[in-house]
Amino acid sequence: MIRVRFAPSPTGYLHIGGVRTALFNYLYARAQGGQFLLRIEDTDRERSTPEFERNILESMAWLGLESDETLVYQSRRLERYKEVARELVEKNLAVEEEREGKTAVRFLMPEKPAVFHDLVHGETSFDASLFDDLVIMKSDGYPTYQLACVVDDHDMQISHVIRGDDHISNTPRQILLFEALGWKPPKYAHLPLILGGDGTPLSKRHGAVALSHYREEGYLPEALLNYLALLGWGPEGNQEVFTLAEMTQKFSLKRITKSNARFDLTKLEWMNSQHIKKLAPEDYCGKLAQALPAEAASMAPEKWRSLALLFQTRIKTLRGLRQEAGYCFAPLDVYDGGKLQECLAKAGLEGADGRTRLAEYLSVWITGAEKLPAFQEAPALEQWTRQTAEMLKIHAKTFIHPLRFAWTGELVSPGLFELAVILGKDVCLERARKLAGQLKTS
Question: What's the rounded Cα separation, in Å, for the pair 297 and 310?
Answer without folding.
Answer: 18
